[in-house]
Amino acid sequence: MQNRIGLVVDINNRQQARAFYNSVFLGSSSIEADWSGDVATCVAGDTSSAYKQRVMDRINYYRAAAGVPADIQLNPDFSSKSREAALIMSANSALSHTPPTTWNCWSADGNTAAGKSNLSLGSAGPDAIQGYVQDRGNNNQAVGHRRWILYPQTQEMGTGDVVPPTTSGIASNALWVIDSHTWDVRPSVRDEFVAWPPPGFVPYQTVYPRWSFSHPDADFSNAQVSMSQNGNQVPLIVHPIQPGYGENSIVWVTDGLDPASQSTAWPAPEEDTTYLVNITGVLINGETRAFQYEVTVFSPDTPGADEEQPVISGDRAIPVTLASQFQFTPISFSDAHQLAVSTLTDSATQLNAETVDPLIQDLTDADYPLIQNQIVKSGNWAYHLAHPNAQSQALVIDQEFLLSADSQLTFASRLATATEYQLARVEISLNGGVAWQTLYQQAGSNNSGESGFVQRVIDLAEFAGKSARFRFVYYFDQGSYYAGTSAGTGWYLDDIQFVATKEINDTSISVLNGSSSFVFTPTAERDYLLQVRGLPWPAFAGMEWGPGKVVKALDPTTDNDQDLMFDLWELNHNLDPDNPSDAVLDSDNDGVSNLREHDANTDPQDPESYPGMPGEQKPWLKIMPWLELLLSE
Hints:
The protein is built from 10 helices and 35 strands. The chain is an alpha+beta fold. The protein folds into 5 domains: about 1-175, CATH 3.40.33.10; about 195-300, Immunoglobulin-like (Sandwich); about 310-345 and about 505-555, Sandwich (Immunoglobulin-like); about 350-500, Jelly Rolls (Sandwich); about 565-630, no CATH class. Strands 18, 20, 22, 25, 27, 28, 30, 32, 34 and 35 form a 10-stranded mixed sheet that branches. Strands 8, 10, 11, 12, 15 and 16 form a 6-stranded mixed sheet that branches. α1 (about 15-25) packs antiparallel against α2 (about 50-65), α2 (about 50-65) runs parallel beside α5 and α3 packs across α4 (about 110-115).
């Protein structure tokens, strides 16, 4: 799936587009920057190599999805000068591509970088890249930042980031986007044009109010744009044509959304929603042309009905310390896969806040405690999520579970004072906590809310065979909210329990390159869980694990019920190793006892497997199967 070191994705394949978002976009989310600078003393400092790589990864996500070469490399010299530019912007709380020498922390290198960079104030790193592609604000009708990020010829960029503590400065980014390849011959692109959002399946989180269409040779002076959804026209406003930023482009705002507001987000679709885009009157090399394409906005949280699954096949029971081979159905668009081997134990996970449980990850604000004793369901303590500020708060359970058809998550819940924009959510992750989908959601009632705890039960049967993590999120994005952490505000939780699940531990992960089989050698007599997932982009592991296969490792000579049949053989042939009567039975009615099939190593569930012994030749064995046992002694 890679071209040179670049990323390639087929976004006409929904599963692949979904995997790309969950793997690469989420895998390039912001991390601790480890910034070493100081705005007050005009020290630009630096960020960690991992942080800068996240910036490049986020850029290449957008470029690959747009169908242009996604192999942007980090230029150290560009980055060094860009750090000086970012410092200037942060120190002056303003943006300028030509900062005056009177500005605080001005430098010649910073001035040079400012003239060749996208500039951001208030965000840095990967978040700044997303802001550039969104290109909100009244001054960004040309989406110039987006056009430079998606410019096909570019091969190198540099990032400079200022990431100070919130109390001592403003975050900023300078992304050097004009390299020595600006005037190179245009490389091949997927669609001839470059659009955002591009034709194909696009996660709603990366769809913004401003849509754009670029072509290097196009004259859009007389072009017209229309959009429809399910045959109905979508209202839009075309911005004035503005050349001078990357490729020639036409830009429009859709569906009455506000392109100036940072908080304006494309609404999460309840189902996949396809928009038909028509652009007419485009003059290219003297010829008037028209373009038509479809954009399907979808939620990457929701799997498609026909997604490929890496299903593992092989024995149910295997000999301990000996190698056993397994096969799996590979994901067609993934050259590599990952294998996870884990141990399993029956789950006894109950979380009631009476003690500090090591399984609980407290992702709440430091202004209030996660555990409180004023409002409880049972015992003396319960969990509390509130909004001291406009940030979501979370309680994460740091444990992976194997789910079954009988699995449930139960908990006592009380959503107290909250607005309709404050949401109590329970979320599940099927890829180790990279991406999350909502299982349960309750909005506030704009008043004091529930007066007592309500027992909630979430059926997990649809995830049978899957490994999963869980978290409780008191979510807020925009709108009004009750701020505060005092008793009677926010969401209270108690008596969290997992039913009919197994705990997954001691997981080891390896890479399977170009193979649809693997060998596993168990080291102890116990239950193991085997799982496979696709790895289309080797640096980004974000696909969901396929259905788990539980295998039991045994001493191959064990015979617990003393029926002269090895337990390992019985388990692999759907017999009960704790039932001694299995030996005299004839499970496939072929006239041959299960014991005789055991000794011949044939299949007691397949009447055709015992050579030369079809059931009709010995009908008396169906009436007296014990006689075969007697004759065998």
